[in-house]
UniProtKB/TrEMBL annotation:
This is allantoicase. It comes from the Eukaryota. Belongs to the allantoicase family. Pfam families: Allantoicase. It is an enzyme of class 3 (hydrolase). It comes from Lodderomyces elongisporus (strain ATCC 11503 / CBS 2605 / JCM 1781 / NBRC 1676 / NRRL YB-4239). The lineage of its organism: Eukaryota, Fungi, Dikarya, Ascomycota, Saccharomycotina. Residues 27-187, 208-344 form the Allantoicase domain.
Length: 346
């Protein structure tokens, strides 16, 4: 069975500790679906919350910002197959949002997953998922009831899956509409033995980085810091509200994908021009258990240094320590697009 959590508990135990592995901003995508008569399946993985928008209507003047299938009321289920935006992940829970679907919402859902290893040909990779036999799909979240126009937070009974997966299938029984779907898991990079000695960005979500704690994310969420690329505008970075108190700072703590020896750190302020931080500093620590993070001893690896608009700031780190977490402090507030922490696995 699935554990049904309150929003606050889900935020604390799932969202802040894991990654939405199918999200559009991470590169997740729709591979296939059973039906999208009223509204497209691709809406499920949009990063922004669903809204009623008069410019987006598809049927009889009604507004749709989600996925909705035709009405059939038959035994069975409609479904969508997702490809993860990361190489693989162990799954732990999901959010199902039926916002604005009232009387036409999905009465129940389940989540299944499968692992398909990429042979290097992306087109073959996508074709392989369509050849998967029904019995090869493994249950992650069993069939669970949903209600109209609300957010549902489900966690797996027993925590993370033992296996890591590459694709997931959302089913709704028997038909209806879902506005958004978030699927959370622990990223497991698919690497070769030689990668262990390579310098990699261990803050990257694709290498297992997670923003586990943040002081404020009023305009843009901290998980954006770990995305690939430099983004398209300020909306896909991390930005805090304007502070008014003397001595104020904002900060984010990032769990690296593995304990590493840090060599270089990049703070990118791309697209932040009148709202970049005046200064930044970076500290690092190593803890064996994340519950110890509150009392951890932090080592300064980048002292207070000025930043500037729309630029990648590269800092060399001269420290032979092994670190599992970094804390980026911006002074006094502002926006940062990306954080890169390059190093070699310890």
């Amino acid at each position: 069975m699935a554990n049904i959590l309150a929003q606050e508990e889900f935020q604390k135990t799932i969202v802040s500790q894991y990654t939405d592995v199918i999200g559009e901003k991470l590169g997740g995508s729709i591979v296939s679906f059973s039906d999208e008569w009223f509204a497209a399946a691709e809406n499920l993985i949009k990063p922004k919350a669903p809204i009623r928008d008069a410019t987006r209507f598809t049927y009889a003047g009604a507004w749709y910002d989600g996925w909705e299938t035709r009405r059939h009321n038959e035994e069975g289920a409609d479904w969508v197959i997702f490809k993860f935006g990361v190489s693989s992940a162990k799954l732990v829970g999901c959010e199902v949002d039926t916002a604005f679907f009232n009387g036409n919402h999905a009465p129940a859902i389940s989540v299944e997953a499968v692992q398909i290893l990429n042979n290097g040909n992306s087109s073959d990779f996508d074709d392989d998922i369509l050849k998967i036999k029904e019995e090869d799909w493994e249950t992650v979240i069993p069939k669970t009831e949903c209600g109209p126009s609300q957010r549902h937070f489900f966690a797996r009974d027993g925590g993370e899956t033992e296996k890591n997966y590459t694709h997931a299938r959302l089913k709704m029984y028997p038909d209806g509409g879902i506005a958004r779907f978030r699927l959370y898991g622990k990223v497991i990079p698919v690497t070769s033995a030689s990668d262990a000695s390579k310098k990699l960005d261990y803050a990257s979500v694709q290498n297992g980085g997670v923003a586990i704690s943040v002081s404020d994310q009023h305009f843009g969420t901290a998980d954006n810091l770990l995305l690939p690329g430099r983004g398209h505008d300020m909306s896909d970075g991390w930005e805090t509200k304007r502070s008014r108190e003397p001595g104020h700072v904002d900060w984010v703590v990032i769990r690296l994908g593995a304990p590493i020896k840090i060599q270089d750190i990049v703070i990118d302020t791309a697209h932040f021009r009148g709202n970049f931080p005046q200064k930044v500093n970076i500290k690092a620590t190593k803890v064996d258990n994340e519950s110890e993070i509150q009392d951890a001893q932090w080592t300064t690896v980048v002292p207070d240094l000025k930043t500037s608009a729309d630029k990648e700031h590269e800092f060399k780190v001269d420290n032979d320590g092994i670190f599992s977490h970094v804390k980026v402090t911006i002074i006094p507030d502002g926006g940062v697009k990306r954080v890169r922490v390059y190093g070699v696995k310890a």
